[in-house]
Amino acid sequence: MADVLAVAEVRDGVVQSVSREVVSAARGIADSLGGAVDVAAAGGPGCGAAASGLGRHGADRVLAVEGAAQVDVRATAVAELVRAGSYGAVVFAATGPGRDLAPRVAAKLASPLLTDVVALDVDGGRIVATRPVFAGKALARVRALGTPALLSIRPNVFAVADSPREAQVEAVSPAAEAETGYRVGGFEASAGAALDVAEAAIVVSGGRGMKDPENWHILEDLRDALGDTAALGASRAVVDAGWRPHAEQVGQTGKTVTPKLYLAMAISGAIQHLAGMRTSGVIVAVNRDPDAPIFGVADYGIVGDVFEVAPALAAAVRELRGS
After folding, report:
1. Domain count of the fold of the chain
2. What CATH number should be reported for the domain holding residue 99?
Protein backbone atom coordinates (compact mmCIF):
# COMPACT_ATOMS: atom_id res chain seq x y z
CA MET A 1 0.00 0.00 0.00
CA ALA A 2 2.22 2.74 -1.31
CA ASP A 3 -0.32 5.12 -2.87
CA VAL A 4 -1.63 8.20 -1.07
CA LEU A 5 -5.08 9.78 -1.24
CA ALA A 6 -5.24 13.57 -0.88
CA VAL A 7 -8.67 15.01 -0.06
CA ALA A 8 -9.17 18.34 -1.83
CA GLU A 9 -11.50 21.13 -0.72
CA VAL A 10 -13.66 22.54 -3.51
CA ARG A 11 -16.06 25.37 -2.69
CA ASP A 12 -18.37 26.88 -5.29
CA GLY A 13 -16.34 25.28 -8.06
CA VAL A 14 -13.04 26.70 -6.79
CA VAL A 15 -10.23 24.58 -5.35
CA GLN A 16 -9.10 26.10 -2.05
CA SER A 17 -5.43 27.02 -1.82
CA VAL A 18 -4.89 24.67 1.14
CA SER A 19 -5.53 21.77 -1.25
CA ARG A 20 -2.21 22.53 -2.95
CA GLU A 21 -0.50 22.01 0.40
CA VAL A 22 -2.41 18.76 0.95
CA VAL A 23 -1.38 17.41 -2.45
CA SER A 24 2.24 18.54 -2.00
CA ALA A 25 2.38 16.77 1.39
CA ALA A 26 0.81 13.65 -0.15
CA ARG A 27 3.33 13.75 -2.99
CA GLY A 28 6.21 13.78 -0.51
CA ILE A 29 4.84 10.72 1.28
CA ALA A 30 4.12 8.88 -1.98
CA ASP A 31 7.64 9.52 -3.27
CA SER A 32 9.07 8.01 -0.08
CA LEU A 33 6.75 4.99 -0.34
CA GLY A 34 7.18 4.59 -4.09
CA GLY A 35 3.52 5.14 -4.94
CA ALA A 36 1.12 7.47 -6.75
CA VAL A 37 -1.13 10.30 -5.53
CA ASP A 38 -4.88 10.25 -6.05
CA VAL A 39 -7.03 13.27 -5.25
CA ALA A 40 -10.56 12.89 -3.93
CA ALA A 41 -12.63 15.87 -5.08
CA ALA A 42 -16.15 15.63 -3.68
CA GLY A 43 -18.66 18.40 -4.12
CA GLY A 44 -20.91 20.06 -6.65
CA PRO A 45 -20.81 19.87 -10.46
CA GLY A 46 -17.41 20.67 -11.95
CA CYS A 47 -15.39 19.77 -8.85
CA GLY A 48 -13.34 17.24 -10.83
CA ALA A 49 -12.41 19.70 -13.57
CA ALA A 50 -11.51 22.29 -10.95
CA ALA A 51 -9.23 19.83 -9.15
CA SER A 52 -7.45 18.68 -12.31
CA GLY A 53 -5.05 21.59 -11.91
CA LEU A 54 -3.65 19.88 -8.81
CA GLY A 55 -1.62 17.74 -11.20
CA ARG A 56 0.87 20.58 -11.13
CA HIS A 57 1.60 19.74 -7.50
CA GLY A 58 1.93 15.99 -7.88
CA ALA A 59 -1.54 14.50 -8.38
CA ASP A 60 -1.57 11.53 -10.76
CA ARG A 61 -5.34 11.04 -10.78
CA VAL A 62 -8.43 12.98 -9.69
CA LEU A 63 -11.42 10.98 -8.45
CA ALA A 64 -14.39 13.29 -8.89
CA VAL A 65 -17.48 12.64 -6.77
CA GLU A 66 -19.93 15.20 -8.11
CA GLY A 67 -23.22 15.60 -6.30
CA ALA A 68 -21.90 14.94 -2.78
CA ALA A 69 -23.34 18.08 -1.21
CA GLN A 70 -23.79 16.93 2.39
CA VAL A 71 -20.75 16.22 4.51
CA ASP A 72 -22.13 12.78 5.43
CA VAL A 73 -22.35 11.87 1.74
CA ARG A 74 -18.81 13.16 1.14
CA ALA A 75 -17.55 11.16 4.12
CA THR A 76 -19.17 7.98 2.80
CA ALA A 77 -17.77 8.63 -0.67
CA VAL A 78 -14.22 9.19 0.61
CA ALA A 79 -14.43 6.13 2.86
CA GLU A 80 -15.53 4.02 -0.14
CA LEU A 81 -12.60 5.34 -2.19
CA VAL A 82 -10.22 4.37 0.61
CA ARG A 83 -11.66 0.85 0.85
CA ALA A 84 -11.45 0.40 -2.93
CA GLY A 85 -7.85 1.64 -3.18
CA SER A 86 -4.50 0.51 -1.85
CA TYR A 87 -3.55 3.60 0.11
CA GLY A 88 -0.81 3.90 2.67
CA ALA A 89 -2.12 7.29 3.80
CA VAL A 90 -5.07 9.65 3.44
CA VAL A 91 -4.33 13.37 3.87
CA PHE A 92 -6.93 16.00 4.82
CA ALA A 93 -6.59 19.71 5.58
CA ALA A 94 -7.05 20.74 9.23
CA THR A 95 -9.45 23.51 8.23
CA GLY A 96 -13.06 23.93 9.31
CA PRO A 97 -14.43 21.71 6.51
CA GLY A 98 -11.55 19.28 6.99
CA ARG A 99 -12.20 18.97 10.72
CA ASP A 100 -15.83 18.26 9.87
CA LEU A 101 -15.03 15.61 7.26
CA ALA A 102 -11.94 13.76 8.51
CA PRO A 103 -13.38 12.39 11.79
CA ARG A 104 -16.45 11.10 9.95
CA VAL A 105 -14.25 9.22 7.50
CA ALA A 106 -12.11 7.87 10.36
CA ALA A 107 -15.24 6.65 12.15
CA LYS A 108 -16.52 4.89 9.02
CA LEU A 109 -13.15 3.18 8.58
CA ALA A 110 -12.71 2.50 12.30
CA SER A 111 -9.22 4.00 12.01
CA PRO A 112 -7.32 6.48 14.20
CA LEU A 113 -6.83 10.03 12.96
CA LEU A 114 -3.70 12.14 13.54
CA THR A 115 -4.76 15.78 13.55
CA ASP A 116 -2.98 19.14 13.16
CA VAL A 117 0.15 17.56 11.73
CA VAL A 118 3.02 20.00 11.10
CA ALA A 119 5.65 17.62 9.65
CA LEU A 120 5.69 14.20 7.98
CA ASP A 121 8.39 11.57 7.53
CA VAL A 122 8.55 7.94 6.42
CA ASP A 123 10.61 5.58 8.56
CA GLY A 124 10.84 1.89 7.74
CA GLY A 125 7.77 2.08 5.55
CA ARG A 126 5.73 3.67 8.36
CA ILE A 127 4.53 7.26 8.38
CA VAL A 128 5.77 9.39 11.27
CA ALA A 129 3.77 12.55 11.99
CA THR A 130 4.86 15.51 14.12
CA ARG A 131 2.05 17.35 15.89
CA PRO A 132 1.79 19.89 18.73
CA VAL A 133 0.73 18.67 22.18
CA PHE A 134 0.05 20.35 25.54
CA ALA A 135 -1.42 23.45 23.91
CA GLY A 136 1.56 23.76 21.60
CA LYS A 137 4.20 23.70 24.34
CA ALA A 138 5.81 20.56 22.87
CA LEU A 139 5.92 18.57 19.66
CA ALA A 140 5.24 14.83 19.58
CA ARG A 141 6.46 12.43 16.88
CA VAL A 142 3.84 9.74 16.40
CA ARG A 143 4.30 6.61 14.31
CA ALA A 144 1.16 5.60 12.45
CA LEU A 145 0.72 1.85 12.91
CA GLY A 146 -2.61 1.54 11.11
CA THR A 147 -3.05 1.29 7.36
CA PRO A 148 -3.95 3.58 5.84
CA ALA A 149 -2.68 6.35 8.09
CA LEU A 150 -5.31 9.11 8.34
CA LEU A 151 -3.77 12.57 8.73
CA SER A 152 -4.90 16.19 8.75
CA ILE A 153 -2.27 18.88 8.16
CA ARG A 154 -2.25 22.43 9.45
CA PRO A 155 -2.69 25.13 6.79
CA ASN A 156 0.30 27.34 5.91
CA VAL A 157 2.83 24.82 7.25
CA PHE A 158 3.65 22.52 4.33
CA ALA A 159 5.37 24.14 1.36
CA VAL A 160 3.55 24.03 -1.97
CA ALA A 161 5.78 22.09 -4.38
CA ASP A 162 5.73 21.91 -8.16
CA SER A 163 5.79 18.32 -9.40
CA PRO A 164 3.93 18.57 -12.73
CA ARG A 165 1.83 15.69 -13.94
CA GLU A 166 -1.09 15.30 -16.32
CA ALA A 167 -3.75 14.36 -13.78
CA GLN A 168 -6.43 12.11 -15.23
CA VAL A 169 -9.98 12.86 -14.06
CA GLU A 170 -12.27 9.91 -13.31
CA ALA A 171 -15.92 10.31 -12.36
CA VAL A 172 -17.09 8.37 -9.32
CA SER A 173 -20.77 7.93 -8.43
CA PRO A 174 -21.55 9.24 -4.95
CA ALA A 175 -23.02 6.95 -2.37
CA ALA A 176 -26.76 7.05 -1.88
CA GLU A 177 -27.69 9.88 0.44
CA ALA A 178 -28.37 8.40 3.86
CA GLU A 179 -31.17 9.59 6.10
CA THR A 180 -29.45 11.91 8.58
CA GLY A 181 -32.38 13.74 10.11
CA TYR A 182 -31.28 17.06 8.64
CA ARG A 183 -30.83 18.66 5.26
CA VAL A 184 -28.42 21.40 4.20
CA GLY A 185 -30.48 24.22 2.76
CA GLY A 186 -27.54 26.25 1.49
CA PHE A 187 -24.56 28.33 2.47
CA GLU A 188 -24.38 32.04 3.19
CA ALA A 189 -21.14 33.97 3.20
CA SER A 190 -20.44 36.11 6.24
CA ALA A 191 -20.66 39.87 5.87
CA GLY A 192 -17.72 41.18 3.89
CA ALA A 193 -16.52 37.65 3.08
CA ALA A 194 -13.25 38.40 4.89
CA LEU A 195 -10.31 36.03 4.60
CA ASP A 196 -10.53 33.28 7.23
CA VAL A 197 -7.99 33.96 9.96
CA ALA A 198 -7.12 30.23 10.07
CA GLU A 199 -6.11 30.24 6.40
CA ALA A 200 -4.35 33.61 6.16
CA ALA A 201 -0.60 33.84 5.53
CA ILE A 202 -0.43 36.97 7.71
CA VAL A 203 -2.53 37.63 10.82
CA VAL A 204 -2.85 40.99 12.58
CA SER A 205 -4.36 40.33 16.03
CA GLY A 206 -5.48 42.83 18.62
CA GLY A 207 -6.08 42.58 22.33
CA ARG A 208 -7.64 44.58 25.14
CA GLY A 209 -4.79 47.05 24.89
CA MET A 210 -6.59 48.51 21.86
CA LYS A 211 -8.85 50.07 24.54
CA ASP A 212 -11.96 50.49 22.39
CA PRO A 213 -13.52 48.82 19.32
CA GLU A 214 -13.48 52.19 17.62
CA ASN A 215 -9.69 51.93 17.50
CA TRP A 216 -9.75 48.79 15.37
CA HIS A 217 -9.40 50.85 12.21
CA ILE A 218 -5.71 51.15 13.14
CA LEU A 219 -5.26 47.39 12.79
CA GLU A 220 -7.46 47.30 9.70
CA ASP A 221 -5.16 49.85 8.09
CA LEU A 222 -2.12 47.72 8.94
CA ARG A 223 -3.85 44.62 7.54
CA ASP A 224 -4.69 46.46 4.31
CA ALA A 225 -1.09 47.64 3.99
CA LEU A 226 0.13 44.03 4.25
CA GLY A 227 -2.03 42.91 1.33
CA ASP A 228 -4.68 40.39 0.37
CA THR A 229 -3.11 37.49 2.28
CA ALA A 230 -3.56 39.25 5.64
CA ALA A 231 -6.50 38.79 8.03
CA LEU A 232 -7.59 40.24 11.34
CA GLY A 233 -7.52 38.22 14.56
CA ALA A 234 -8.48 38.95 18.14
CA SER A 235 -7.94 37.71 21.67
CA ARG A 236 -10.72 36.07 23.67
CA ALA A 237 -11.11 39.11 25.93
CA VAL A 238 -11.83 41.25 22.88
CA VAL A 239 -14.39 38.79 21.51
CA ASP A 240 -16.05 38.32 24.92
CA ALA A 241 -16.40 42.10 25.16
CA GLY A 242 -18.27 42.11 21.86
CA TRP A 243 -15.65 44.17 20.06
CA ARG A 244 -14.96 41.58 17.35
CA PRO A 245 -16.79 38.51 15.95
CA HIS A 246 -15.98 35.03 17.26
CA ALA A 247 -14.78 34.03 13.78
CA GLU A 248 -11.67 36.15 14.42
CA GLN A 249 -10.84 34.70 17.85
CA VAL A 250 -7.40 33.10 18.07
CA GLY A 251 -6.66 30.75 20.94
CA GLN A 252 -7.59 27.56 22.70
CA THR A 253 -11.32 28.35 22.58
CA GLY A 254 -11.07 30.00 19.17
CA LYS A 255 -9.05 29.13 16.10
CA THR A 256 -5.56 27.70 15.83
CA VAL A 257 -3.54 29.64 13.28
CA THR A 258 -0.17 28.99 11.70
CA PRO A 259 0.53 31.99 9.47
CA LYS A 260 3.93 32.85 8.10
CA LEU A 261 3.72 36.14 10.05
CA TYR A 262 1.71 36.82 13.23
CA LEU A 263 1.46 40.37 14.57
CA ALA A 264 0.28 40.47 18.20
CA MET A 265 -0.80 44.05 18.83
CA ALA A 266 -1.52 45.00 22.45
CA ILE A 267 -2.01 41.34 23.43
CA SER A 268 -0.55 40.35 26.79
CA GLY A 269 -0.24 36.67 25.88
CA ALA A 270 -2.47 34.54 28.10
CA ILE A 271 -1.68 30.82 27.82
CA GLN A 272 -5.00 30.19 26.07
CA HIS A 273 -4.05 32.68 23.34
CA LEU A 274 -0.52 31.33 22.97
CA ALA A 275 -1.98 27.86 22.41
CA GLY A 276 -3.62 29.11 19.23
CA MET A 277 -0.69 30.94 17.60
CA ARG A 278 2.67 29.89 19.04
CA THR A 279 3.46 27.66 16.02
CA SER A 280 3.33 30.66 13.65
CA GLY A 281 6.35 31.15 11.41
CA VAL A 282 7.45 34.57 12.68
CA ILE A 283 5.82 36.27 15.67
CA VAL A 284 6.05 40.04 16.19
CA ALA A 285 4.68 41.49 19.43
CA VAL A 286 3.91 45.09 20.36
CA ASN A 287 3.07 45.82 24.00
CA ARG A 288 3.73 48.58 26.52
CA ASP A 289 4.52 46.04 29.25
CA PRO A 290 8.08 44.68 28.87
CA ASP A 291 7.12 41.71 31.08
CA ALA A 292 4.12 40.68 28.97
CA PRO A 293 4.13 36.87 28.39
CA ILE A 294 3.73 37.41 24.63
CA PHE A 295 7.39 38.43 24.47
CA GLY A 296 8.33 34.94 25.64
CA VAL A 297 7.22 33.44 22.31
CA ALA A 298 7.89 36.42 20.03
CA ASP A 299 10.72 36.41 17.50
CA TYR A 300 10.67 40.22 17.51
CA GLY A 301 9.28 42.44 20.23
CA ILE A 302 8.59 46.16 20.43
CA VAL A 303 7.98 47.69 23.85
CA GLY A 304 5.88 50.67 22.95
CA ASP A 305 2.48 52.24 22.40
CA VAL A 306 0.49 50.33 19.78
CA PHE A 307 -1.23 53.56 18.72
CA GLU A 308 2.16 54.89 17.64
CA VAL A 309 3.81 51.68 16.46
CA ALA A 310 0.97 50.24 14.32
CA PRO A 311 0.55 53.33 12.09
CA ALA A 312 4.33 53.55 11.72
CA LEU A 313 4.48 49.89 10.67
CA ALA A 314 1.67 50.42 8.15
CA ALA A 315 3.48 53.41 6.66
CA ALA A 316 6.76 51.50 6.47
CA VAL A 317 5.10 48.52 4.79
CA ARG A 318 3.44 50.75 2.19
CA GLU A 319 6.73 52.49 1.49
CA LEU A 320 8.55 49.16 1.14
CA ARG A 321 5.89 47.64 -1.11
CA GLY A 322 5.76 50.81 -3.19
CA SER A 323 9.49 50.65 -3.83
Report:
1. 2
2. 3.40.50.620
Domain that residue 144 falls in: 3-171
Specify which residues 204 forms β-bridges with: 232, 263
What confidence tens digit (pLDDT) does each residue in 275-300 have? 889 889 999 999 999 999 999 999 99
pTM of the model: 0.79
CA dist., res. 50 & res. 123, Å (int):
34
Instruction: With CA atoms as reference, report the closest residue to 262 among 300, 307, 312.
Output: 300
For the stretch 80-87, contacts whose Cβ atoms lie closer than 8 Å and that sit 24 or more positions apart, written own/partner, are 80/175, 81/5, 81/38, 81/40, 81/172, 82/5, 82/109, 82/148, 83/109, 85/3, 85/5, 85/38, 86/1, 86/2, 86/3, 87/1, 87/3, 87/4, 87/5, 87/38, 87/148
Domain contains 103: yes
The DSSP H or E segment spanning 248 is none
| CB distance 40 to 9 below 8 Å | no
CA distance 10 to 33: 27
Task: Give the C-alpha distances (Å, rounded to integers) separating 188 from 185, 193, 254.
Answer: 10, 10, 21
How many Cβ atoms from other residues are within 10 Å of residue 238's Cβ?
24
Answer left, alpha or beta for residue 272, where phi above 0 means left and psi between -120 and 50 means alpha: alpha
**DSSP string for 278-294:** TT-SEEEEEES-TT-GG
C-beta atoms surrounding 158 within 10 Å: 23
Q: Residues 40, 155: one domain?
A: yes
pLDDT digits over 39-60, tens only? 999 877 888 888 888 999 999 9
User: 301: Cβ–Cβ under 8 A, 6 or more apart, which residues?
Assistant: 284, 285, 286, 287, 294, 295
DSSP 186-221: ---PPGGGPPPTTT-SEEEEE-GGG-SGGGGHHHHH
Q: Report if residue 184 sits inside a domain.
A: no
